[in-house]
Amino acid sequence: MYLHIVKRPKKQRRAVCGSADVIRKGQAIREIRSVPIGEKPLFLVLHLHRLYCTSCSSLRLEPLEIADPKKHWAKALGRYIVNLLHYTTVEDVARHPGMSWNTVKQIHLQALQKKYSRRKLRHLKYLGVDEIAVRKGHSYLTVVVDLETGAVVWVAPDRTTESLEVFLAQVKRAGARIEAIAMDMWPAYIRAALNHFASKVIVFDRYHMIALCNKMLDEVRRGAVQDASRTEKDVYEGVRRLLLRGEEKILSDREAREKLDRLFALNQPLHTAYLLKEELRSLRSCSSRAQAEPALDNRLKNACAGGVR
User: Fold this and answer.
1) How far apart are the C-alpha atoms of 69 and 80, rounded to whole Å?
2) Which of 81, 208, 235, 278 is deepest in the core (most CB within 10 A)?
3) Strand, coil or helix: what is 50?
4) How many helices (H) and strands (E) does the chain have?
């Protein structure tokens, strides 16, 4: 279906100065695709006039209001396509109005660029920072997420200090009141955060803290196995996974509990390391700073008393 559209003379104005004192001097025809009617594609045939403005003495084609410049689809069709993409694939959306896959993807890309080109950073309070591997060979991207909405607010190549610092500088200039930045213990991210915010906003995520503690525990276990006599080595068999499990799971497993009891009776330093790991896990469950500070102090005292640094 084709609809021919001509603007009324009294509605014709210059786009730059808005003057209605214009003289028609030729015309051009543009064909713009619009939202289909049922299964029938709809095209809008626009009869655009070249307007000479007597106020600013310029000759320009009258403005195209229903489509973006140099685009052959109407803005209404773009909104229609983007809405459909919420529910199905690019290929299915392209098949419905009989458009090419590349055109639908271009419409989607333009909508995303328009939506995210002007990010509002002032409202940000809680950020999550992590890296993702994009291909083999240690190729990474730094990704920053708004932890309140789950929206990705920044992506940068590599995982260097500069990868994150550029974004944090923008956040600071925007006047955002950042209360916490959750991250792993990657030194580059820590440096970037400290260059713009106080250390109190840095929050190390639970997963990486427990992972480092488990690594320490496993190193103690391996050292104990090497020093154990032949008669003691059977006590260390099959305990690695048990040591990494949470205490609540061990208590409900009689066989596992008995196996660890024999191990801890034989090796007190390993028992101390295990208890310190469990203290750290319980520390992460504290609901407030007032509750966490004495628990942290107690853990540090226990670690020093147990010879752990």
Assistant:
1) 19
2) 81
3) strand
4) 11, 9
Q: Mean pLDDT by 10-residue block, N- to C-terminus, for the chain (309 residues)?
A: 83 58 77 89 87 72 80 91 92 89 91 76 92 81 92 90 94 92 92 93 84 86 82 81 83 85 86 83 76 78 66
Distant-in-sequence, close-in-space partners of 43: CB < 8 Å, separation ≥ 6: 1, 2, 3, 31, 32, 33, 34
**Number of neighbouring beta carbons within 10 Å of residue 129:** 25
SS (H, E, C) 196-257: CCCHHHEEECHHHHHHHHHHHHHHHHHHHHHHCCCCCHHHHCCCHHHHHCCHHHHHCCHHHH
Query: What CA–CA distances, in Å, run from 32 to 2, 80, 172, 224?
Result: 10, 15, 44, 76
CA angle 300/305/309 to nearest 5° reads 60
| 154 within 8 A of 144, measured Cβ to Cβ | yes
- Which secondary structure element, helix H or strand E, spans residue 263, and what is its range? helix 254-266
Q: Which helix (H) or strand (E) holds 170?
A: helix 161-173
